[in-house]
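Question:
When you can, review this sequence-structure pair and walk me through the C-alpha cells.
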Amino acid sequence: MWNNIGGKIKGLAKVVCWIGIIGSIIGGIVMIIAGASMSSRYNSDAKVIYILSGFGMMILGSLFSWIGSWLTYGLGQLIQNSDELVSLKKKDVRRKTTYVEEE
C-alpha cells in the first residue's frame, strides 16, 4: 500500500484528468442538447448562449482538467525521483563502506 507512492499519485492524476475531461464533454453535450431543444417561448439568444456555453464547457473544461492534473502528476514525479535518489545514495554508501573495509 505504501510502496511506489509516487507512481500511484501519478496514476491518480491521470484518472482524475480523464474523469474531468469525460465529465466536461458529457456536460457540454447536455447543455448543447438542452439549448437545441428549448421551446420557442424562450428567446433565441438563450438557445445560442446555451449551445455556445456547451461548446465552451467541452473545450475549457477539458483544458482546465488537463492543466490541473499537471500539479498532481508533478508531485508524483517529484516523490518518485526523490525515492530513486535515496536508493542511489544508499547504494553509494554501501559501496564506499565495502571499499573502506577492503583496505
Notes: The chain has a mean pLDDT of 89. Helices lie at 5-36, 44-102.
